[in-house]
Amino acid sequence: KFYNLVFRDLAHKLWGDPKTLSEELGRRRVPVPNIFSLVSNMISGTKNRPDVSAKYFYYPKKGYGFICDKFMEVIEGKKGKILNNSTPSKVNIKDNKVVSVEYKDKRNTTVKTDYLVSSIPLIDLINLLSPKAPEYVVEAAEKLRFRSLTLLYVFADKDRIIKDNWYFYPEKEFIFNRVCELNSFSPYTIPKGKACITVEVTSDKNDPFFKLEDEKVFERVIIDLEKAGVIKKEEVKDYIVRRAGRVYPVYDLDFRKNLDIILKYLFKIENLLTIGRQGLFNYNNADHCIDMSIKSADFIINKKPREEWWKLLDYFDNYKIVD
Prior knowledge:
11 strands; five-stranded antiparallel beta sheet; alpha+beta
């Protein structure tokens, strides 16, 4: 009953039919050993129990983009280069090492590489390799699936739209699975007297909803927002729609087998690391991605043996998602 009440419908919205999903997804998403411990902790309030919810979220005063701006400032301050509007076209391998990367901007450019750290989806990385990866590796990468995300930002002339930081909607009657209030992250992200919520709708990339025009997305979602008592259509002053094609890794029953095939092949390339949610097909959050970057830099700078990377992969696999 508890599964049916809380997990089943939300899992179906986020990742698809729960019958096709690996138990590893539950281990990542629920940071307690079993359902009995979860219920017991909720009822008893026992001290020293594992956290299933973060007590505090530290958020940049002027929004998450500040973190990216700070990274850019540090990189450029150390004479590093950031190439915008550039698309990689080939990763050249020789003697089990990446020797150069080719990319396209206004022209075709080749840069020599000491080390390559990739965070792009694994299928994209595999397809860039030259010589080409074996067919069995390509097939494994093609089988790793992501769910897509449509974001509707709704603006209103009021201080707040919802009372809490976010609400989850597992019920099938609502098309969206989560609504967040941006003012609750930081009041400095929104002008005074204004409010903005982010409405998240998860789907497959080939789902008709994902391809809808912005106006039709709003018209469809506002119906359910009114039904849920979040906001009325006449209160909406403006909206913005954004889409992301590969957001949530789908941990299906075969994902681990396919992922291992890919990682074992890439492991043979001595100066290549792949990290991040897309780069490791690792269901994690932004703080985990930053942690991956720090540990990857330490691995490279200190010239640690390649075998140590496998230990780090195990460490990355044990991240817990805390909402």
